[in-house]
Amino acid sequence: MKHISTIAIFLSIIAMGCKEQKNVITKEQLATDNTLSQAEQAEGWKLLFDGQTLNGWRMYQNKPADAWGVKDGILYCKGSETDKSDLRADIVSADQYENFELSVDWKIAPEGNSGIMYHVSEDTTAAYYSGPEYQLIDDAGFPEKLEEWQKTASDYAMYIVTSRPTNPVGQFNTSKIIVNSTHREHWLNGVKVLEFEAWTPDWEKRKAAGKWKDVPNYGMNKTGYICLQDHGGGVWFKNIKIKVL
Fold first, then answer.
1. Does domain 29-244 have CATH number 1.10.287.70?
2. pTM of the model
3. Residue 84 has what pLDDT?
């Protein structure tokens, strides 16, 4: 019995060590995150996040909020730390973009909700009234029933995905958005999960029949800011990079 107990304790220590190791950000990972390879630089990629500061980002409509921070090479929304609406704010890129390929690594907190918007303008009270949104959410753990158009990688309230190869909550995913004139693509962890054409009769029909029927400016911009959404829950971003098409 004593021998078996010793083995059990030893195995428990190993298991705990492995679990802790999964949550450790290694020096090697920090060294490669938020950087561009020579090939990426040659292809025209640009980093939108330097891994150390909020340079290149500001609050939507320059709202005086302290909703975002940087730690260990990660841009994060403080979530419950600023859960009062007057302290929350989406964050937007310094520059505007028209046609582009955007790649972002992200992870969401349990029950979390966020999104990546593009072609955002600042003439409405909320960024999502102008910019289409690539949805980020805890599909399995969100406390309310979700429609398909509310789930991860969907074009929020417009188009649903064909598949959803997400990693477990708490692990990073890689999303890609391609915008080239009317053509749009959503990618998730290397898989193209959605493509559609904006401003077509089908697009107009979906807009008129759903959440945006009374929002005439929704999705109409041909250029605008990249926007990360503060929805009151924890969300983390890194390796945010863009290539102008």
1. no
2. 0.86
3. 57
